[in-house]
Write the C-alpha cells for this entry.
Amino acid sequence: MVTGGSRGIGLATAHALGESGARVILVARSLEALNRAQEELKTARIDAGYSACDLRDTDSIAAWFDKCVAQFGQPDILVNAAGIQRRGLATELSLSDWNDVLAVNTTAVFELSRCFARGLIALERKGKIINIASLMTAAARRGVSAYTASKGAVGQLTKALAVDWAPHGILVNAIAPGYVATELNEALMADAAFDEWVKKRCPLGRWATPDEIAWPVVFLASLAADFITGQVIYVDGGWMSTF
C-alpha cells in the first residue's frame, strides 16, 4: 500500500515496488488521478489497484482501511508517502492550514500504521512500514513551520513505532529525501534564485528524481533490510553532511 501513490515519490515508489514483484495498492484523494496512475502502472505491466481516501479526515481512516483489506487483502508493506505543504511565517499561517498539514503528514501516518500493524499482529505476520520524512525532520527553513513540525514528528514516530512493534517483526523506517523534482516543488523549481540555491547547497549539485527516492524504499521493504528498524535514512545528495 502506497499513500500519495498517484504522483511524485509515491507513484515512483509504486513503479519500483511493482518492478520488484509487489502487487501495489495506490492511495490518494483524487479518483481521476488514481485512475491515471493505475493505467500508467498497467502499461508497465505492474499489478495495481487503488482506493481513494482523504487523509485529512483522520477519523475515517480505520473504517476505510478495513474496506481496503476486505477488497485487496492485508498488505505486507505500507509506504506513507502522502504529504502536503502550507507555506507562511508562523505568525501568519492559519490554524486551519496548520491542522491540515499535521493531519495528513503526521496523524494519518500514525493511524494508517497502527491499522496496518493490528492486521498483521492478528494474522501473526511480519511486515514493513516505510515513512517518507524530509530534510525538515532534522533542520528548519523559514516559512514552513507546519511542515517542519510534521516531518520532525514523523522521524520520532518512526522510532517509537519501531520499538513498539519489534516483538511482532514489524519493522518501521523512514527515508528523508533532499529536494526532489516533483509536482509539490514545481513553484520552487521555477524560482531561479531558489533553484540556484538548491544546486549550490547540495554537494551533488542537483535536485533528486523521484526514482532516486523510490529505490531506497524498495531496499527497506526487502529482505536485505531485515535487521534495520527505527532508522531515518537521509537520501539527500550529501545535504546533511555539509554546511
